[in-house]
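Quality-control log, excerpt.
Job 1 of 2 completed; input and output follow.
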Amino acid sequence: MLSRTRIPLPLQVALAAVAGAGSFVVARVVCTLARDDIHAIPFAAVLLTVVLLFARTLGILFALPIGTAAILAYDWFYLPPFRELSEATYTLLATFLGMAVIVGTVATVTSRRAVAAERARGDMAEVQASLRRLALLIARGEVPQRVFEAVTREVRDHLGSDNATLVRYELDGTTTELACAGRPEPAVPEALIRHVREGGRAFRLDATAAGVPVVVNGRLWGMFSVGSAESQLPDDTEARMSEYTELVATAVADAQSRAELISSRARIVAAADEARRRIERDLHDGAQQRLVALALRLRTATHDGDKPGEVAEIGADLMTVIDELRELSRGIHPAVLSDSGLRPALRALARRSPLPVEVDVRLDGRLPQPVEVGAYYIASEVLTNAVKHAGATVVEISVKIEDDCLHLRVHDDGGGGAKFAGGTGLLGLKDRTEALGGTLDVTSPAGAGTTVTARIPLEPGDGGRDAQAAIG
């Protein structure tokens, strides 16, 4: 049908008016020639059939003026009395044709809007079903590659393009094609990749290629591109792709979170194993061997009664071993923490420190054991780092409860420059804190000291308790 072509509507209206005038001329000639030879009723049926064919072929916009002009010609030049063309008849003809064109235009616009609305509802239902399928994949924890492949297929089917491609931007400036649906050719244009990467927003290279960025956690991660070699892409292609890029970003962020969680758990297990090996090594190489040696010396002293000083010396060595065991036990779990809580434990930690430590603990009563243990070891490790690495002269430890969370702050006036990758144990503290459902932040500008701030919920979830148990 002509109404469905790409001819602009104003031009179609003008063509409909011309068609109406032309049909009047043709119908007048036919009616003049046939009025003495054909009966009126069969001729009217033929005329209506011709108008119906025009309506089926060209649409109501053309059928109304053509039919109106044909009926006027039938009335004026086939049925008596016959009319002469005058100014009055031309005015009446123009009025009828104008009215027919107006009614046809209104009917056409209304019909197109109804069709567009119905198509939009259908498209929306398809999009919602597509997004629901993809969301279920992400919710089930499917591997990212399967999600990427599913998304590219859905995008291609939804847009009706020849191909849809997901590309990841690498840190070295290269790109990696993660998934492609449809025809592999033509490949994603380099100019499209470059424009999206540099601008960070959707870009249409031409009528057959468009790209939309994929942003994950505020960083440009990659792009979605669609292409069509044989037809133009719809004007709203970029907007229709945005919902799919958001799902890709969700899938990537979810995969990254799972990877970080797996790495964190691996580091926790490794740290726990290393701690056990260290304790075993210290016991075996230190206290255990010395106790064996002292037992041999006691046996010798028992049989050799003329060395009374030997027994006294052995007693002194035993006290040394006891002190070593006491010092070793502090690294495992201080008794004062279990017996009295976090405030006395931190004060005892400060008294043993070779550096002056200012402790400000604002707590009313005891806290859940995982929270107390986590906060103590964070403070202990940060204090150890300050003594060994920071060159500090004073350390400040403050603890308070705010918004149902324990807030721990440890600050030293050392040289700064501490970071998670610096081998100072901060990464392990971060893992420990996150295992409790909290967060750990480090501020350490060069030459301005180091501030470690931990925020731990007072009611860690099951995952936090399980991770804390794994830590030991």
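Job 2 of 2 completed; input and output follow.
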Amino acid sequence: MKKTHYTLFLVALLALNSCKQDELNVLETVTTENLDDAGLPELNFSSVLPAMSSTEAYTIDAEEWNIPTNGTDAATTTTNLQAAIDYAHEKAYTTVILPAGTFLVGEDVNEIYQGGIEIHENTEFVFSEGAILEIDTNDKWNYCVLSLDGDNIIIRDGIIQGDRDTHIFTPRESDNKVAHDEGHGICVWNDSNVVLIDHMIIRNTTGDGSLVLEATDVTFTNNTIYNNRRQGISVVGGTRITITDNEIHHMNGTSPQFGIDIEGAGRLDEDILIQNNYFHHNAGGDIVNTSGKNVYILDNILEQGEGSTYIDGPLVSWHKTHNIIARNTITMLSGSVNGRLGYIQYSGGGDKGHNRATYVHDNIMNNCGMYMYKSADADVRRNKFYGYFAAFSDFDNLILEDNLVTYSQEHTNLRYCWSYRFKNATGIASGNYLEDELQDLPLKENEPYTMQCVLDGW
């Protein structure tokens, strides 16, 4: 997967203003949405969940299959555990149960890939209490501890563990690099569709907790994903992806280091729901969307975490994506390369490739604010930016309504040109407050507005 390299620029945060309107269409170029009672585009998709055709279960007998359960002899464990799983599939068992124990796996496939265990279609793979599936120490760039091959698969109730603490970072022959950032806990690929990952712990990989590669109808729920070197979950081509009620934390080691990274690299990423998750201590940030359309980011908690620093910041999107960002609570303790921005939209300018607005509603940003630039079409309402500002630069068609900005109690020298900043911005604004004072923000729909204090260098 192509690694994201985030441009570390924030062109000295620019201009400010506010706006209001009950209709989305400030300009005729914006797509008309079907809005729910809260004024957000209706969620018009849901991930299909797996359904097994029978209740036939097969519990793997480790002694019968000569499978070590004490975390030794990866070659024997891999061969015999895979044989038991294959047998259950051939006999049409829909539930396969892994007994308690530590199962060390790993197969030398080629010079850059270490194979693990493969799960077939129409299978619910269940970990018994105390069961751990662990990749053996290796020197490969890529691995999948558990690889899904086929449709209609459930993985639940267990622990998957990588080898980051013992991995051998041998230089790759093709370019002499040693990032080794493609070691994954669960790989949802090979056109696997209709997948549920439920109540799993996925940790200590050299790359991602899970990789979704060109898959459809994939759900992650109630998982704990932590201490992986690159990401928690990477979506590299996915449609109807649902990520709910997970704890994703301590991503660190090799960039981008986000909790969730949507980065199709030319593949389609569409209809993605990220809701009710808890993110903390992720070095790069918590959620980044570089390529996704119709992405709903709702009701999440994003925290920097004590003793942690952000590189990019909690929530990042790119100019050509489409996002609905609502009811999240974002907390920063210190600034990233972008300052204290809880949400930033990066842009190189040019055509967005779509006419939908970005919605930013009812978010609470503690000790942080937001910034969007070189783009168009945003509906920003009822957010609370405690101790930082909201800024828009070279931005058209902004609705800014009923937001609150407060002064920083820690940075009292930052009170000049505070509040809402604008440079070359068009739109409408009303009902926006700085502390308890209503702000007169003279945005216009057809005439770009720049604050004088921005021109003065604020």
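Post-run check on job 2. The CA atoms of residues 31 and 48 lie 27 Å apart.
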